[in-house]
Amino acid sequence: PPSPLTSYTTYTDISVSQATSPDQFSVQPLSSKQLYHSLSMQMNNLYTTSIPHTVPDENLILGAIVAAAYQGSWYRAEVTKCLRSHFLVCLRLVDTGKMILCTSRQDIQPLWSMFGELPVQAVSARLAGVRPDSGSFWWPVETDWFRETVLGRDWVGVIKNVEMGEHGHPVL
Predict the structure, then answer these.
(1) How far apart are CA 141 and CA 138, in angstroms?
(2) Distance between CA atoms of residues 151 and 136, nearest Å
(3) pTM for the full model?
């Protein structure tokens, strides 16, 4: 299901889960933080204790939703690119916004249907009305400062506009 953050609101409580620059970061709704934590624990329990099932190559297509292992935990992920000849799969962790590369078949498994009920948690966002001082790009000192300031912190946000971004995903 789509994220609850894709509808216009006056004020909404959010957490920044991934940050590249002021015009490229991901946010999660605080209202479902406990539900997401519960989902994460259930996924880790199931995928670390059950017999692994590989995803057939023909199912690793653009937009496919799978379970993916990353840094010792299991996440819901969307396939964004796949190079089958070398088994290199680019995935977007749909609940954090982080992009990862997967090179091991054991790290990608079918997503059990019970894990598809909670809406996607991460939504791409950009700060309205903020532009790089240099004109077309952010200096590393600016992106470093932004990342250190916002990443992993809770904020109150106002959704000014929703556009369709890459792969048809909303951008706030």
Answers:
(1) 8
(2) 23
(3) 0.86
